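Workshop exercise sheet. Pairs work together: one partner reads the sequence aloud, the other fills in the structure field after running the prediction. Swap roles for the next sheet.
Pair: D.N. / O.F.
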Amino acid sequence: MPSLNRQEIAGHFAEIHPPFTQQAALAEANRCLFCFDAPCTIACPTHIDVPGFIKKISTANLRGSALTILDSNILGLSCSRVCPVEVLCEGSCVLHRYNQRPIEIGRLQRHAMDHFYDTGAKLPVRNRKPRMRSIACVGAGPASLACAAELARRGYSVTVFDSRPYAGGLNTYGVAEYKLRPDDSLKEVELVHSLGVTFELNTEVGVSVPLETLEQVYDLIFLGLGLGPTESLGLKGVGVKGVVDALTLIADYKTAGNIQIGRRVAVIGGGNTAIDAACAAARLGAEEVLILYRRGRDQMPAFEFEFERAQSDGVRFHWLTVARSVKTGGDGRVTALECVRMDLGASDASGRRAPTAIAGSEFLLECDMVIPSIGQTRLVEFLSRCRNVELRDGCVVTDPHTGRTTNPMFYAGGDCVNGGLEVVDAAAGGKRAAIAMAAHLEEQHG
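Structure field:
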């Protein structure tokens, strides 16, 4: 397996949506119809004033455009890069009705946000009254960052705890680099920090800081800790050399000093993260990359544009295929996967037709690296220790309008609530909870 250092790795990840030039941005902004009750704004989970920020770009007011975005979504930079705009704002653009190309809202948003950060701009200081109440955010991912920023802008003292050395959650560690570079994620962390938010990194709540201590010290606690490690495949031989789950692979190549990629890589799973891992392996030098999915293409949960990206990177697909065991050589490294072909039977609990093995269809698939990507576990062990916080299917139960849990001291948002949606959904959930938390504190304490 060839070994690549961080500088070499970055060179393999050309951005999939390159930035606009100033001239191109002006031309694109002037295509906008600036709709009243714009469907693009409604489709955005954070409800950014899309016509408003685009109008400011058309008049070369990039700072004003960025501030319009940030007023709704403090993670406007990362969302401009990672949002599935094809199924959100751009998918709702009225130009679709006239069979015209929709406005490239994501790239215009990036244009404004890049200018904001490149010029070293700061958020304007609100005339806020310092408040004597404090909030702890558990986890430093998008939901907690959005929650912390909103509370800090309202004058509250906020401390964010995370077990990792860098804040940002999946934006820093788990999003493919051709979508979002770790440096860009950390720019947003620094913006939140500039609002007065304190970060306690390398600090695992429940281990180095007891959960009971947070309950004693802080007035409210926000749970924004996301999901856990990749689900176990239950395969024989998973612990051997050459088997690494998708999130670990992405985190390693984004933040570690070097990484090794196999020559023939098999990715197991059919979601967007599986696509990200497969494309990463292809870009990092694998000679052949295969995705094994137990159902067919029509049942694949990954977005269509993600599937097309994988195809453009040369990734091949084995549909209706399940891996049963990992085969190894004398050196203990992966040599092959024992697989079986599947057929689709009756519908399962999810409403999709359940795959069943075809007798006698077993075969060996040669590979020297296996990347499981079948979803993430729920952090039930930790969440069950949050006093009187109800869980359902391993996720936190909240009031959808406020993020409040069944324990009024705890609020929650992001993947630990929704089971794993988009960055913009986490940002929306975090901000929504912050507004409710502030209202609760003002009602209780003035």
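Discussion prompt: The first strand starts at residue 3 and ends at 5. What would you look at next?
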